[in-house]
Structures are given as structure tokens and as C-alpha cells.
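Bug report

Summary: C-alpha cells for Fe2OG dioxygenase domain-containing protein differ between web form and batch submission.
Environment: batch mode, default settings.
Steps: 1) Submit the sequence below via batch. 2) Compare with the web form result.

Sequence submitted:
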Amino acid sequence: MESQREGRSSTVALSDLQSFSFRQSPVLIVENFWSADERQYFRDAMNQAAWKSLSDLPKVREDFPDSGNWAKAEIGPAQGNRFLSRLQLPCIQEYMESFPNITGRHMGFSYYSYSAGDCLLTHDDTSQGEPVGGRLAPRRRIAVVAYFHEEWQSDWGGELIVYATRSAHTAEKPALSVTHCIEPRPGSLVMFTVPRFHRVCRVDQTAGQHRRLSIAGWFMTEHA
Ligand SMILES: O=C(O)CCC(=O)C(=O)O
Ligand SMILES: [Fe+2]
């Protein structure tokens, strides 16, 4: 039994979530965070959403070459509110408010759908677009990913791999070592502090028509 538990040391029980701290432990995994009803609710909304695939999004594709053709859609206001209402957690509030001189707080979440052949190459979530109107772009502080597909099997791939940097952060391509390999289990919630290198493994052909459905985005702070 011990060996089965080992690689899951970052998995936090729902009952321990209230006392979790990103300062102590920068990667949070909560399994079965979203109920079957919630998963169904978000999947229904995803079915109604206006999806755009990477081939329709040339600028995103520039940032993520060789990533297949995953699709993205905007989350509606009702769904955004329902999603956020479940994320009223002290660990988020505490971490966000720990940065000095915050002049604004932002968040942004979208739907994502990965089919067989799709992946997301290694990145650290720091690319944040150009400053707008002379103001600094908000800084991404906490990345959030939640999985809403009905079923996922290990053979289907699509794991979220999280890395630590082994060399000084100045190198163009720092040497990395895997700290977490997270299966996209239905109902899991994953959060981690940014910057942090990570990638989504390619979804295998064995997934057939099954899609890896997620909501992902960031909590951000703005500074003068
Ligand atoms: O889907 C995931 O597991 C992670 C997605 C991600 O890293 C991103 O959208 O920036
Ligand atoms: Fe990311």
C-alpha cells in the first residue's frame, strides 16, 4: 500500500484543504473536488460553447508550436461564477494577498478540449501579453486546472507534468526534473504557483473520440 501512496504526496484531502498553504507546498492536487453533477453542468456548458482550435488561433499557435490542434472556448458568466464560487479558499486568498503593492486583482479562465494527438509543450505560464495603456500586464500568480471529462484512462496520456528547475533560471532552456506527474482524473482540481515549468503530455490515439475537457486559467495581481 505504501508504494501506491508515495507518488501522491501532493494529493490533499478535501477536509485538509482549509489549512493548505502554497508557501509550504506550491503544488496542490485535490481529487474528486468536482462532483458528478458539477462535471455534468460544465460539460453541458462546454457543449454549447463556441470553440476555436489552434488552427483558428495563429497567435496562440505561435506560442505553442507542435501542440496538435487543441481547442479553447470562453467560459460564460454563470459558469464562471459557479466555478469561482467553489474556489473561495483561504490558501488562494492568503497567497494572493502576500504580494506587496497590489493595485488590482484579476482572473481569467477558459474551457479547453484536447483530443488524441494534442499536447502542450513545456512552459512556465509567465507569458502574459503586452502591457495595455501604459499599465503593466497583470502577473499570473496561481495557475488553476480542473478536469471535467466523464472518464479518463491512464493509457490515454494527457498527464500534466510539473517540473522543478535544476539549473539557474537564467538559461534559455533550464534543466528540469519532474516533480509531479498528474493524471487528468475526472473531478480533480490542480493549482500551482507561477512561474513553474509544466507541460501536458500528448493525448494518445487509444483515447479514440474521448476528449480531455478542462477549465484552466490564473489568479493574477496587478502592480503599479
Ligand atoms: O491542462 C492542463 O493540465 C494544464 C494547462 C496549462 O498548462 C495551460 O493552459 O497553461
Ligand atoms: Fe500552463
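Above is the batch result. After comparison, the two runs are identical; trailing whitespace caused the diff. Helices lie at 2-6, 36-48, 58-63, 77-85, 90-96. The longest strand covers residues 102-114.
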